[in-house]
Design a protein that fits this description.
Elements: E1 2-3, E2 9-12, H1 22-42, H2 56-79, E3 83-94, E4 104-117, E5 123-126, E6 137-141, E7 147-149, E8 151-155, E9 162-165, E10 175-176, E11 187-194, E12 198-217, E13 223-232, E14 244-246, E15 251-260, E16 267-271, H3 272-285, E17 291-292, E18 297-299, H4 302-308, E19 316-318, H5 334-337, E20 345-349, E21 352-353, H6 360-365, E22 372-379, E23 382-389, E24 391-392
Parallel strand pairs: 10-15
Antiparallel strand pairs: 1-2, 2-15, 3-4, 3-6, 4-5, 5-9, 6-7, 8-9, 11-12, 11-14, 12-13, 13-16, 14-15, 15-16, 17-24, 18-19, 19-20, 20-21, 20-22, 22-23
Length: about 400
């Protein structure tokens, strides 16, 4: 488990075990039946109908809430057909008393997540950690129960994103919004395969923060930094990973990715604007194309400045060799070819100053492979201007 800069522990919202005991299942059914019986006995008023004794102002407020509810229902009905459940299945030996020592194998479901369809022929966006097991097979189930075998087309090495394909036609799709227009306080809905058992579950909340930088992990060693994450209090449970965070127009603003195991109703989504260029690559080329510099770095803040006794307050510090278990400069990378070194501080990229608003990865990702950019580099007390030609990132290096 990893911690954010505020010591908040986050876990990616993927469910590792999806089966519940008969007692738990029975208890849930019993409670629901009791609720139904109670409603029948008491006689619930029809929504929106006038209630005796209420003032006009109160009645108007109730009618307003009913209209909002109807709008929410309409949005869910618009989107839910394009939200899919992704199930993880692995092959296990099956032993029986009559097998005469012979072992047979069968697939068993061990977990799952969520995704959403973005093209009518079945291209699906989800989280990388949902489909990270190379020894598993993946089954996609639509909201109507139709099942498809899934093929993993591409996984991003930078963001927790993956693209999965099913063979279909005229499938329902989502509409992608503009996450740059997202605002704190905005109402949002999260749809997902809650606990990998309750497909297309809907929760409602608000955007409670923007531009968050978090470190999230699965708890088994996998982790990554997510920049510009959307924070929401719409409840996100295990199994919701890869599902859409949508606004009241039915547009996807983000990909639900991580939840805090300590903070109540504290979830995070990758902004959809970070997904769009990757989607364009997959549609056009069948893979994700990213430019590559080839350095391991830390964005400088107060803590990094003090730890490494730096003279500047902003920029990207290439991690000194003695401070990392791996190489600061990847062998054979564009950075290695131009002589960048551990301890160098990259101040700007082609005039883009690095700092709170622009990280090194954001700056590099604004270019294309084979483009040449100029780096402003501080090495000791000397400022260097270094031209480097970016290359296409090879996913096999990670």
């Amino acid at each position: 488990m990893l911690k954010t800069q505020h010591e908040t522990v986050l876990i990616v919202a993927v469910c590792a075990s999806i089966f519940f005991g008969a007692v738990a299942g029975g208890m849930t059914s019993y409670i629901l039946l009791q609720d139904d019986a109670l409603e029948q006995e008491t006689g619930t008023e029809k929504e929106g109908a006038p209630v005796a004794g209420l003032s006009d102002e109160t009645q108007e407020a109730i009618e307003g809430l009913v209209k909002e509810q109807e709008a929410t229902i309409a949005v869910v009905e618009q989107v839910t057909g394009a939200v899919v459940s992704i199930y993880i299945e692995k092959e296990y030996p099956q032993y029986t008393s009559s097998s005469n020592g012979e072992v047979t194998y069968a697939y068993e479901r061990v977990g799952g997540g969520t995704g959403f369809i973005v093209t009518p022929d079945g291209l699906i966006v989800t989280n990388k950690h949902v489909v990270s097991d190379t020894e598993a097979r993946y089954i996609v189930t639509l909201n109507d129960g139709t099942e498809y075998d899934a093929t993993i087309l591409a996984k991003d090495v930078v963001l927790d994103l993956a693209f999965v394909k099913i063979e279909g036609s005229a499938l329902p799709t989502v509409s992608l919004g503009d996450s740059n227009e997202a605002r704190a306080g905005q109402t949002v809905l999260a749809i997902g395969n809650a606990l990998s058992a309750y497909s297309n579950s809907v929760t409602k909340g608000i955007i409670s923060g923007l531009d968050r930088t978090i470190t999230a992990g699965t708890g088994n060693g996998e982790s990554e930094v997510i920049e510009e994450a959307i924070q929401t209090d719409a409840p996100i449970s295990e199994g919701n990973s890869g599902g859409p965070l949508i606004n009241l127009y039915g547009e996807v603003l983000g990909v639900n990715t991580a939840v805090s195991i300590y903070g109540q109703s504290l979830g995070f989504a990758i902004p959809i604007n970070a997904v769009k260029p990757l989607l364009e690559d997959v549609v056009a080329y069948g893979r994700i194309i990213r430019p590559w510099l080839g350095v391991r770095y830390l964005m400088i803040d107060k803590a990094v400045k003090e730890e490494f006794e730096l003279s500047v307050e902003a920029g990207a510090l290439i991690v000194p060799e003695e401070a990392t278990d791996d190489r600061s400069i990847v062998a054979g990378s564009p950075a290695a070819l131009v002589g960048l070194q551990g301890g160098d501080i990259i101040i700007s990229v082609d005039g883009m100053t690095l700092g709170e608003e622009t990280s090194l990865s954001e700056a590099i990702n604004s270019f294309e492979p084979e483009q040449t950019v100029t780096l402003e580099v501080l090495r000791g007390l000397e400022t260097l201007w270094i031209e480097v030609t970016l290359k296409e990132l090879d996913p096999s290096l990670f």
